[in-house]
Write a structure and sequence with these properties.
Length: 131
């Protein structure tokens, strides 16, 4: 039997009594996804490799220092890979790893929630078709 929200009501609850990132999968995931800028960076990188300047431009209001810190943190978590190319001038690109791509259903759910409940009128597919 499922409730109106789609959750199985007959399934026993297995929730931890205390939500700590070391023992609770939801808390550990929220620690990553809930960090400021992470969802937007993963969203941007879902379309393929991006340069630092492209990410800085798309995340309006992020400082270069904060962006560098977030990218380093995501790299250390195995969410993002940094690729450096020996060109002149040097080129660095960031892209999602398989672990980072596993976050995309969460980002998609956030997009759907925003469209359904937060009156976000921006339609990405429409914007691409009209540009």
């Amino acid at each position: 039997m499922t409730g109106g929200d789609g959750y199985n009501l007959a399934m026993p609850r297995t929730m931890n009594p205390v939500h700590e990132a070391t023992t609770c999968a939801v808390a550990a995931s929220a620690e990553i996804v809930g960090a400021k800028w992470t969802a937007l960076l993963v969203h941007d990188l879902s379309e393929g490799p991006r340069r630092f300047s492209q990410l800085e431009h798309s995340c309006c209001g992020i400082s270069p220092r904060t962006l560098a810190e977030r990218l380093r943190a995501l790299e250390s978590e195995g969410i993002v890979e940094r690729h450096s190319y020996p060109e002149s001038p040097p080129r660095v690109e960031y892209e999602l790893t398989a672990k980072g791509e596993a976050l995309l259903p969460i980002i998609d759910a956030m997009r759907e929630f925003g469209h359904s409940h937060l009156h976000c009128d921006h339609d990405h597919d429409h914007a691409l078709a009209t540009s």
